[in-house]
Amino acid sequence: MPLSLMQEEQEQYTFDFLTETAEIVAESRDELSIRIGEFAGPLDLLLYLIRQEQANIFDIPIARITDEYLRYIRLMKSLDIAVAADFLVMAAQLIEVKSKMLLPRDPFADPEEVAEDPRQELVDRLLEYEKYKSAAQMLYEKATIEQAVFPRGKIESDDNNAEISATVFDLITIFQKIVERQKEKITMEIERDEVSLADMIKRLHARILEHAELSLASFFEEFDTRRELVTAFIAVLEVVRTESVKLVQKKTFDDIILKRV
Amino acid sequence: MSEEATETAVETKQARGTGELMALAEALIFVADEPITARTIADVLEEDKASVEAALQALREEYDNRESGLQVREVAGGWQIATRTELHEYVRQFLKTRPSAKLSIAALETLAVIAYKQPVTVPEILEIRGVQSASAIKTLLEKRLIVTKGHKETVGRPMQYGTSKEFLIHFGLKDLSDLPSVEDFEDLVQ
Amino acid sequence: MSEEATETAVETKQARGTGELMALAEALIFVADEPITARTIADVLEEDKASVEAALQALREEYDNRESGLQVREVAGGWQIATRTELHEYVRQFLKTRPSAKLSIAALETLAVIAYKQPVTVPEILEIRGVQSASAIKTLLEKRLIVTKGHKETVGRPMQYGTSKEFLIHFGLKDLSDLPSVEDFEDLVQ
Q1: How many domains does chain A have?
Q2: Fewest beta carbons within 10 Å, which of A21, A116, A130, B174?
Q3: Looking at beta carbons, which residues of chain A come within 8 Å of B129?
Q4: Does some domain include residue A157?
Q5: Does C84 have pLDDT greater than 70?
Q6: CB contact under 8 A, C108 and A166
Q7: End-to-end CA distance of chain C
C-alpha cells in the first residue's frame, strides 16, 4: 500500500470523529476516560479490544479490531487525552495489515507455498508483549506482599552511618546540578550593602519565630550576593550551635528544614 | 597474660556451638541496615561459610517454630529480620504509614521488560512495549530500582539498563533466579 | 456475611492468647524507632495495659531462655529490642567493617567533578563546586575511588586527580568512555 494512501486513510479516520463519538462520550464519559487513561500503550489497548470482541488472538478479525482501535483513538482525542505518537503508529500499522488482507492472492503464486499471514508479525508482538504484561502483574503482587513486611526501626548504630550509596545516575545528576549552580553563581556577583552577622542572626530568628519551621533553601534564596549568602550560612550554623534549633532532612537531597526543638 | 588471653579466645572460637553461632548471626543481622550475606557474617566471626549457613537456617526455623512476630528471611542475596506479613495491619497502624505509592502500570511493565531482558536498551524496550518508556525509566532510576549497565556496542552506543539490589529488596526476591521464568507466562497468555 | 465476619473479628480479638499478644508486641517494639511504652502497645492493639505488660515480661523471658543474640529490655520507660551486651565485640567489629561503598553527598559531588573533568586540581574543583573539598578528596583517596595523576605544570604545580580502577568497578563501568554523558539521559529528563 502506498504511503500516501495510508496517510490519507488515517487522516480520514482521525478527523471525522465528532458526530460518531459524541453519543458514547455523553453516555459514559467518566468510565471511559478512566479506562482509556489506564492503557499502558497501543499493544495494551489492542489486547483489550481483542478480549472485548472475544476474538482469538491467532485469528484476529483485523477489520473489526482496526475500526474499534480507531474509534478509541478518536475518543481519546475528544476527551482531550493527548494521543501519543506510538498510538498513531500502531493505527497506521493496523490499517496496513487490514488492506493487505483485502488484497486477492496472487493467482500465479506457487500453491504449495503458504503465503505468510499479514497478521503474523502483529500476533508475535502481542504474544511477546502479553508475557511482560503478566510479568508486570506478578511484580505488582510481589510488591504488595512485600509492603506488608516491615524492617526494624532505627537503632543507634544507624546514626554512625548517615551516608548514602550512589549509582552512576546519581553521579551525572549531581554533576548537572553543580553545573547549574555554577551558572547561577556568575549572575549573582553584584555589589550590595553589607549585612552584619548580628543582623543576619536577628533576621533568621524572626523568620523561625514566625513559622516555627523554615526551609533553608527558601531562606538562602532571599540573598543575591555571595557575601550575603556566606553570612546567612554562618548565621544558620551559629543558631544551630548555640540554641535549641535543629536541622532536619527527611530524605537524601531533600530540602533541609530548620526546626525549633 | 596477653598470651593467655589469646589462648582463651582461640579456645572459645573452636568450641563455638550452633547455638552460639545462631545468637551471633542473629545479632549481626539485627544491626545490619540492609540484608547481610552469610559470607560477611562468616568473615566477621572467622567461621566457615557452611557453618554460618547452617546456623542461619536453624535460626529461621527457630523463629518460625516459636510463632514469633518476626521472621528471619533471605532477600537480595542476604539475610534480614522483618515483621511477619500477617501482622501488617497493626504495624501499619502504629507507624501511621500507608502503603507507599504504587508504581504505575507503565513503570511496572518497563521494569518487567528490564528484569527479564537485562541488559536492555531503550529502543529494545520500545520494541517490546510498543510505547516510549522514557518517563518510566526516569522514575525507576530515581527509585533506584534499575541501574545503568554500560553502553551497548552498536550504532549510537545506547545506554543499557538492568535491575538493582533495591529491586530485589523491593520485591522480596532472593536473587534474579527467584523470578518466575518468563516462559511460564506464555501458558497464561494462550 | 459481613455481620458474620465482624463477629469473628471480635471473637478473635477477645480470644487473643498470650502467644499472639507476645508476637504483636514483639513486632511493634521491633519497628519502633525509640523505646515504646506498654501503654502505646495496648492502645494500638486495643488491649488492656496489664495483659500487654504480662506479654512483654513473657517475651523478655523467652528471649533470655532461648539464649538469643538479642534481648528485650526496658529502657527509658519503654521497651526495646537490642543486641546482647556480651556480643558487643563482634557487633562493633561488623559495624566498623561495613561495606565502604557509601559516600556522603560532598564526596559524591567531588567525585562527579573529578570523574567528568579529570585530570583536575583542587583549585579547579573548588572553582566548580564553590566549596572546599579537602576532606571529600581525602575520603575518596582512602576509599581508593580516586588517584593522583601527577602535577599540573602551572603556578604552584598543584596535584591533579582522576578516577581509579576501583571507581570503574564500583560503578560497574568498563572504562571511562562508558561513563554516561549528559546526552545519555537527555531523553529521560524532559
Answers
A1: 2
A2: A116
A3: 40-41, 43, 129, 132
A4: no
A5: yes
A6: yes
A7: 52
Determine, for residues C112 and A172 on separate chains, whether the beta-carbon distance falls below 8 Å: yes
* In the predicted structure, residue B65 carries a pLDDT above the cut 60: yes
Asked if the Cβ–Cβ distance from C108 to A167 is below 8 Å, we say: no
CB A24 within 8 A of CB A75: yes
Here the ipTM equals: 0.77
Instruction: Mutate one of C95, C109, C167 to test the A interface: name it (highest A CB count within 10 A).
Output: C109
Give the mean model confidence (pLDDT) for residues C47-66: 94
Query: B105-189 adopts what CATH topology?
Result: Arc Repressor Mutant, subunit A (1.10.10)
pLDDT beyond 90 at C41: yes
pTM for this predicted structure = 0.71
- Rounded to the nearest angstrom, the gap between the alpha carbon of residue A219 and the centroid of all alpha carbons in its chain is 31
| Among A43-57, A95-109, B95-109, C171-185, the range of highest mean pLDDT | A43-57
Query: What pLDDT sits at residue B45?
Result: 94
Task: Give the pLDDT mean for C123-135.
Answer: 87
Inter-axis angle of helices B38-45 and B18-31, to 10 degrees?
A: 110
Is 70 exceeded by the pLDDT of residue B88?
yes
Q: Which fold has domain B16-94?
A: Arc Repressor Mutant, subunit A (1.10.10)
Q: Answer yes or no: are the C-beta atoms of A175 and C113 closer than 8 Å.
A: yes
Rounded Cα gap, residues B4 and A132, in angstroms: 64
Chain C residues whose CB is inside 8 A of the B9 CB are none
What is the span of the domain harbouring residue A226? 164-186+193-260
Interchain contact, B44 vs C184, CB within 8 Å: no
Decide if A159 is inside a domain.
Answer: no
* Domain residue extents for chain C: 16-94, 105-189
**Percent of chain A having pLDDT more than 70?**
71
Nearest to B167 by CA among B76, B83, B35, B33: B76
A21 shares its domain with A111: yes
Q: Indicate if the pLDDT at residue A253 is higher than 80.
A: no
Q: Give residue C171's Cα distance to chain centre.
A: 19
